[in-house]
């Protein structure tokens, strides 16, 4: 008996991976991140944060940035902590631009940043936002929820550049990746070297899906 004609697409994966926003009634709410609770930053935490970032060395800025990022790695990071992280990132990027001007660097290259204030990974080209990946942090997992690339930059092939930067960022920070957006799923299918970033249980399901899709594609070839 011939197997049933079932079309397997990457869009099925959110259901296979048990999408975290799925409710028991079968309806899936918006992927937009929940608004952070407006909790105050403890006084002792403010004591370590410099009043003037311009007077802090770049090395100290990076250390502060890493510590602040770790503080954001919770289910409900505070808004003041997000704003603090954004200030640190902006100061580091300002120094990068200043160093590039002094070194006459090529401004045409892409620049990647983690915009924790808006919960998205961003890719810039010539100072223009070319695309971003919306995410949500849950403990040590980063959930990739939605990807957008400006149509003006799609011909330049920036979508895989953005996705690779996102996965490398997760690797450096020892974060597990949950690829819920189709763009992330397709990139991982084409770049299996990044599959180790997916938690083991979900990785097995992902590989089974890829094998099923390959089998269906083989049957459809003349």
TrEMBL record:
Protein name: Uncharacterized protein
One Pfam family named in its UniProt record: Acetyltransf_CG
Organism: Arthrobacter agilis
PROSITE patterns in UniProt: GNAT (PS51186), GNAT_YJDJ (PS51729)
Limits of the N-acetyltransferase domain: 79-222, 113-199
GO terms, molecular function: acyltransferase activity, transferring groups other than amino-acyl groups
